[in-house]
Write a structure and sequence with these properties.
- The chain has 820 residues and is an alpha/beta fold.
- It has three domains: 96-185 and 415-517, 3-Layer(aba) Sandwich (Rossmann fold), CATH 3.40.50; 188-394 and 618-642, Dimethylsulfoxide Reductase, domain 2 (3-Layer(aba) Sandwich), CATH 3.40.228; 670-820, Barwin-like endoglucanases, CATH 2.40.40.20.
- It is 30% helix and 17% strand.
- The protein contains 30 helices and 31 strands.
- Strands 5-4-21-20-19-6 form a six-stranded mixed beta sheet. A six-stranded mixed beta sheet has the order 27-29-28-31-26-30.
- α22 links the parallel β20 (493-498) and β21.
- α13 packs antiparallel against α16.
- The longest helix has 19 residues, at 123-141.
- The radius of gyration is 26 Å and the shape is globular.
- It binds ligand PGD (2 copies) and molybdenum(VI) ion.
- The site of one ligand PGD has 38 residues, from α20 and β20.
- One ligand PGD binds next to α10.
Length: 820
């Protein structure tokens, strides 16, 4: 989960302005009555979501058409799925309770979770059950009994942020008595290591802007990054401006290299040089390039001297003096399967002109994932171009249109969860009584009271007995599904609030139907980085079936816990939206920006902000390069840390104090590899994680009704698999069915099965069951990246594949459970 830090307003800033917000208590009655805030029965409504801003066409109260906002230069093809998600068969219609739970109480027949036996109840009954359970668990097990670290890609919008709303309700209702989570599944390893190395997060920060890259970069390297695919969506409302610049770069005819086991959309778009690296060996390849630079005297010794710390401690490792193994091109070639000659020519090419090393995040979402981005920074330091126009490295060109110049725009605050901003990571809050690294949730359930390490600290796993999940799908996003199913049985109560019958909802005891973001009003930025506009996310249609807004659900729960007023602060939906807008307006006025008043804005639906010439020239680390003494980095030495004394002090066996090649627990052709194929579980081109998997979009990509699995022709031939066959992908952790696509797009030894396919166990609830649709996380391992970051290793894992010859199980997961 990943808000651009530039978008964040800390709670402190927010509180400073509370008096101003208070002053807008008097909202003009004409506005509240104008109908602008209510879904129109007929006509067109401008609104937006992760997929961009769009106009929804409404007929007789039904959403019937969608067309992109005129300001979107490259609308996502997923928009039609967005519309379909509202009416899809997988929609949750009513509050539902698992029968055994309803009849026998919390903890009853937990092994039946996932079997789909639900009973419809009234909203009142459901809310009473939830509130009573929260109280009971809090009273019985104390402030660490409720897990509300609920993670996931919820919907855009500054008010209907269901995760903040959940924690806000528990803050006011249980006095903060709940367990929270830290970090995210996207960049867990990088966001912990980068502050040690660069003094800042990197992953959610503005890049050297695209106009500078287009003009100055000679070689653009996408290292495990597919910006054409992943920039379709944003954390706020996608602007899609990157696509214009990708085209501009392409038009220059300059060199683009894609280092990736898969021939990506980006590689195809640029007709790039494709280096089909063996997965999980990027650190070795980088070391091979670094070694070549050093032995050929092509490294920038002056840059290393002036701007970095600890190269002298890293060098003996690079040269093999500390471990007897020089990290030569030949050494690297043996590991990463890129020929030594090619590694050497990369070293030459990178020094010949301006080189931008643009990395995605898959290479840190793997075992020892901390090392790859640390080594990337080290390599960029040896090239000496950090802080020069078009040179250096970037960790966010592929995400939410990072690198698009930022407009002169005010920043919207949003609903708060009641915690304080965390020092050094202002996008997190310290709400809650305890905290775990987000992807350690299964370990927490397995090992309450057990120790865990995290970034230099040691803490104990809390004893959580109730989990409340909103806006996320852990039965899609978490690894090692079968291990997870067993761990889930330790919970006495599971509450899930969603608008889709996800696998997570199916594994719940109490299921509450939420509205989609198209059934309520909200406000959001367009462009995480470009901040190019503020959008009124207007309600398109009235809530379907018995769906209710998360806000109203939590207000009712807060009331049952005794504190509705503290939750709502007496404000209506529109009053909240106006309060956020007015705060932005005030900022804008203080900085001489031209910000329309709220009434005009809401009527217009969007306020677009100008982009200055200065913003189009931004060079990341330009100021540091210019004056390293006056503009030091936020690291202990004020420099780029190739060696970290802080990490040295932690003394972790799995994260040494300088970037190091470390064997992951399993990798293709690695020592002791038990299975012959690597599973590439990258992000889907046709949906957002699991979102929209239950929509018409699936018709365009499913193979034999299942999630597609791309297999190289050599691997397919060796197993007698043909295009369109149903295959079984399996390892010791699980087994899934998928539909085969035979293609050279994936290198030999690597199969691709996107993350986010809906988990459809043939025997619901039973660990080890065959998954009929294709949830890749049945196959991936659940361990942490290292003691430092404890991130997820979603991209790690080996398996085998065979043609499926048994009786084909039906795919049932895209319909609601029986009777629901
Ligand atoms: P989504 O499918 O987006 O996945 O995991 P995440 O849990 O974010 O789930 C969001 C859920 O929120 C959906 O079920 C949606 O219906 C629901 N929702 C949306 N809006 C609302 C709302 O307003 N209210 C409520 N109540 N619910 C709402 C994503 C995670 O997966 C991420 S970010 C990454 S980077 C990881 N990637 C990988 C990977 O690369 N490889 C593997 N193997 N595994 C991964 N898992 C991670
Ligand atoms: P992935 O697709 O997982 O995306 O952004 P991230 O960069 O993590 O991986 C990018 C590329 O890395 C893929 O082409 C994959 O083949 C390659 N790769 C995998 N393993 C290796 C390896 O070991 N070495 C090398 N060199 N390459 C490797 C994810 C980002 O995308 C995130 S976190 C989120 S939450 C968003 N999710 C989506 C989404 O679900 N769908 C779309 N369309 N767009 C998204 N954008 C965001
Ligand atoms: Mo992510």
């Amino acid at each position: 989960m990943s808000s651009s830090r530039s978008n964040h307003i800390s709670r402190r800033d927010f509180l400073k302005s509370v008096s101003a917000i208070g002053a807008l208590g008097a909202i003009s009655p004409s506005l509240l009555m104008s109908g602008a805030a209510y879904a129109a029965a007929n006509g067109e409504v401008l609104t937006g979501s992760h997929w961009g801003a769009f106009r929804a066409e409404v007929k007789d109260g039904r959403w019937v058409g969608v067309k992109p906002w005129e300001g979107d230069p490259h609308p996502s093809h997923q928009l039609k799925g967005v519309m379909d998600s509202v009416y899809s068969a997988s929609r949750i219609k009513y509050p539902m309770v698992r029968r055994a739970f309803l009849e026998k109480g919390p903890g009853a027949a937990v092994e039946e979770r996932g079997a789909g036996d639900f009973v419809r109840v009234s909203w009142d009954k459901a809310l009473d059950l939830v509130a009573n359970e929260l109280k009971r668990v809090n009273k019985t097990y104390g402030p660490e009994g409720v897990y509300a670290g609920s993670y996931g890609w919820k919907s855009s919008g500054k008010l209907h942020n269901c995760q903040s709303l959940l924690r806000r309700a528990l803050n006011v209702g249980l006095n903060g008595g709940f367990v929270n989570s830290t970090g995210d599944y996207s960049t867990a390893a990088s966001q912990v290591i980068m502050p040690h190395v660069m003094g800042t997060l990197e992953v959610y920060e503005q890049q050297t802007v695209w106009p500078v890259v287009v003009e100055h970069t000679d070689t653009l390297v996408f290292w495990g990054a597919d910006p054409v695919k992943t920039n379709q969506i944003s954390w706020t409302v996608a602007d899609h401006d990157t696509y214009t610049y990708l085209q501009e770069f392409k038009d220059t005819g300059k060199k683009v290299i894609c280092i990736d086991p898969f021939k990506t959309e980006t590689a195809k778009f640029f007709n790039a040089e494709w280096i089909p690296i063996r997965p999980h060996t990027d650190t070795a390849l980088m070391l091979g390039v670094a070694h070549t630079l050093y032995v050929e005297g092509k490294h920038d010794a002056d840059f290393l001297d002036e701007y970095t710390f600890g190269f002298d401690k890293f060098l003996p490792y690079l040269m093999g003096e500390t471990d007897g193994t020089p990290k030569s091109a030949e050494w690297a070639a043996n590991i990463c399967e890129v020929p030594a000659e090619q590694i050497k020519s990369l070293a030459n090419l990178f020094t010949e002109g301006r080189t931008m090393l643009a990395s995605g995040w898959s290479i840190q979402r793997q075992h020892h994932g901390e090392q790859s981005h640390w080594m990337l920074v080290t390599l960029a330091s040896m090239l000496g171009q950090i802080g020069l126009p078009g040179g250096g490295f970037g960790l966010s060109y592929h995400y939410s249109c990072g690198g698009c110049p930022s407009a002169t725009s005010p920043i919207l605050p949003g609903i708060t969860d009641g915690g304080q901003a965390v020092e050094g990571a202002a996008w997190l809050s310290n709400a809650g009584a305890a905290n775990i690294p987000v992807s350690r949730v299964v370990e927490m359930l397995e090992n309450p009271g057990g120790d865990f390490d995290f970034n230099g600290k040691r803490a104990k796993y809390p004893n959580a007995k109730l989990a409340y999940w909103v806006g996320g799908n852990p039965f899609a996003h978490h690894q090692d599904r079968n291990r997870m199913i067993k761990a889930w049985q330790k919970l006495e109560t599971v509450v899930v609030q969603d608008f889709q019958w996800t696998a997570t909802a199916r594994f719940a005891d109490i299921v509450l139907p939420a509205t989609s973001s198209y059934e309520r009003n909200d406000i959001e930025h367009i462009g995480d980085y470009s901040l190019k506009a503020i959008l009124a996310m207007k309600k398109v249609i009235d809530p379907v079936f018995e769906a209710r807004n998360d806000y109203d659900i939590f207000a009712d729960i807060a009331e049952r816990l005794g504190n509705r007023e503290a939750f709502t602060e007496g404000k209506s939906e529109l009053e909240w939206i106006q309060s956020f807008y007015s705060e932005a307006e005030k900022q804008g006025q203080a900085q001489q920006m031209d910000v329309p008043d709220f009434e005009s804005f809401w009527k217009e639906g969007v306020a677009v902000f100008p982009i200055s010439d200065e913003a189009k020239q931004f060079v990341r680390y330009g100021d540091y390069r210019e004056d390293p003494l006056l503009e030091p980095l936020g690291t202990p030495t004020g420099k780029i840390e190739i060696y970290s004394k802080n990490i040295e002090k932690m003394n972790y066996d799995d994260c040494p104090p300088h970037p190091t090649w470390m064997e992951p627990i399993e990798r293709l052709n690695g020592p002791g590899a038990k299975y012959p194929l690597h599973i590439n579980s990258s992000h889907p081109n046709d949906r957002l994680h699991s979102q929209l998997c239950g929509t018409v979009l699936r018709e365009s990509y499913a193979v034999a009704g299942r999630e597609p699995c791309v297999i190289n022709p050599q691997d397919a031939a060796a197993r007698g698999i043909k295009d369109g066959d149903v295959v079984r992908v399996f390892n010791d952790r699980g087994q899934v069915l998928a539909g085969a696509i035979i293609s050279e797009d994936t290198r030999p030894g690597v199969i691709r099965l996107y993350e986010g396919g809906w988990y459809n166990p043939v025997e619901g609830g039973k660990p080890g069951s065959l998954d009929a649709y294709g949830d890749v996380n049945c196959l991936t391992p659940g361990l942490g990246t290292s003691k430092l970051a404890q991130g997820n290793c979603g991209h790690t894992g080996l398996a085998d594949v065979e043609k499926f010859t048994g009786t084909l199980p039906e795919v049932t997961v895209f319909d609601a459970p029986k009777g629901a």
